Amino acid sequence: MCGIFGYIGPRTDAPKIVLEGLKSLEYRGYDSWGVAVVAHNTIVVKKKTGKIGDATVADMPKSSFALGHTRWATHGGVTDINAHPHLDCTRTIAVVHNGIVENYENLKKQLIAKGHRFISETDTEVIAHLIENHYVSLKRGGLKGVTLIQAVRTAFLLLQGLNAVIVIDTKSRQFIAIRNGSPLVIGFGKNENYLASDPAALLPHTRVVQFLEDGEMAIVEERKITFKNVKTGKGLPIKKQKLNWTVSQSDKGNYPHFMLKEIHEQPEALRDIAKTGATGALRLARAIKKSYGTYMVGCGSASYACLAGSYLFSKIAKRHVNWAIGSEFGYHLNFLTPKSTVIAISQSGETMDILESVKKAKTRGAVIVAIVNVLGSTLYRLADDKVLIGVGPEKAVASTKALTGMIAHLLLLSWALAGDVKKGQAMLAQAALVSEKLLKNKKHFATLVQKLKDVTHIYVIGRGLSYPAALEAAIKIKEISYIHAEGMAAGELKHGPLALVEKGTPCIAFLPNDETYGANLAGAMEMKARGGYIIGISFKPHEVFDYYIPVKDCREATLIPNVIVAQLLAYYLTLERGLDPDMPRNLAKSVTVK
Ligand code: F6R
Fold it and tell me: Which of 16, 23, 395, 589 is catalytic?
C-alpha cells in the first residue's frame, strides 16, 4: 500500500534522500509518487504518475526538510493531481496520507461551503483544508496561540476510518505524524531524524526506531522527537527499539529481482530456524497445551501456512486446530473464550484483516500468539506472545521466504507439541539441504515455461500437506504471471473442476512420498484421461507425467521444497511473459486496508 518517507536534518539534499526512501518502498505497490520540500518559506511539490524509475528531484530546490509519498489509488483516479502530497488553499501546509477518510464527502462539502478550493478528487486533500481551517483561518480570525500541532490534532479527530497522516508547513520545521490503523515508524538519527511507513526503508540511515501506536502523534524535529496522545494532547514516553535487520538484507545484491533473491535466501533461513526456533516452539507448545481451542489465522499465502499447520498439528502432534482466513475469522468469533489461543500468522504484521481479527479476539479474552516477521509491527505489539519468523525483510510483493519460514515454525511447533522438537529441527535441516540442491539445478523450468507461457488456465492439485502447496502454487502463478491458476484438493476434481479439463490443459500435481501418493496419482490420471498435460512434482517419476520435476523426500517438510518449486515456476513464467515479478499490478506488499 502507500509508502511514506520523510527526512529532517543538516543535509541539504533532503529531496534526494526522500526519493531514495520512496524507491526502497516501491515493493509495497504504488501507481504515482510525490515529494514536497520546504525551501525559502514555500512548499515546492513534484508529483507524477507511474513508477519513479529514473526520475530525479534535481529540479527541486535544495532543502534539509522533505516529505514523500507513493500512492496506491483509492479515492480518485491515477493522475498527477491526485498524487500526494496535497496542499491547502494557502499552499503553506502539505499532507501525505495512508488509509481512507471514510467521512471525506461530508467534510469536503462543509469545507467547500466555507470557501475552500479543492483541486484533486482525493480524500487526502480534505485533511489539508481541515487543518488550514483550524490553523490559518482561526488565527486570522483573531484566535491567538493556535499551533499547527493543535490544528492537526483537532482535524485528525474529525476523521473517520483508519489513517496515518504526516503534515508539514512552511513555518514550523517539524513533521507532525499521527497514526490510527495504518503503520508509521519514526527513525532516530544523529542530529537528523526520519519517518517511514515501513522500517525496512530506514535501514540505510538508522536501526533505532519507534513504532507509532494507534492514537499516538509524533512531532519530529531535527534534534528532538516528542510523542503525544492524540486525544488528550498529553506527552508520552519515548520507547526506542533496535531493528535486528541489516542493510544488505534490504537490497537486491546481485540478483535481478527481490523475489529471486528471497527465493535463494530460503535454505539459509530454514537452517537458522532449525537452529534457533526450538525455544519459541517449546514455549508456544506449553501455551497451546493449556488452551481449550486453538485457532490459526492468516491471509493469502499466510493462510496456506495456517492450513498446512492444521495438517502438521494433526499428523505430528495429533491435535486439532481450527484455521481461518483473516477476513472470515470475525464470523467464527462466537467460538472464542478466554481459554482459546489465536495464532495470528503474518509476514508484515500490518495486514488489516489480521489486525481486526486479533482485536476482536482480544475483546473475547482469547490469548493472542503472533508468528510474525516484522519486529515491532502492530501485530507484534498486539500479541501476548510472539515468535519472530526471522527471515529478514521480504520486499517482493509475492511472499516466498516468509511463507516457508512460517511453515518451518509450524513444523517445529508440531514436533514440540509431540514432545520431540529435535526431530523437527533435523527435518528442517534436511529440507534446507533439499531446497539448496533444488535451487542449484533449475534446468527443469526452462522447457516448462516455454510450454506454459501462453496458456490461459493452469490447474494444481494436492492432498493433505500438498493441498496448501497446490493453493500456494496457484496464487504465486496468478499474482505475478497473470495466468489464471486454480489450486484445489485433488479429491474435489470430480466434484466440478474436471469439467474444464480438455486436451492440453496444464495440470500440476504434487505427489510426495506420503499417505496421499496413491490418491493423488488417481487425480493426475483423471486429468490425463481428459487430455490434461500433467506436470508431476514428486520424489519419483511416473508414466502419467508429461513433465517431471523431482523433489527429494524429506517427510512432512517436503512441503517446503514443493513450495519452492512453485515459486521458481511462477518466477520464470513471469520473466518469460516479459513481466516484472517484483511489482505485480493491482497488488501491494502490506495490505493495510480492509
Ligand atoms: C502472496 C502474498 C499475500 C500475503 C498476504 C498476507 O504471495 O504475498 O497473499 O501472503 O497479503 O500478508 P502478511 O503475511 O504480511 O500478513
Answer: 589
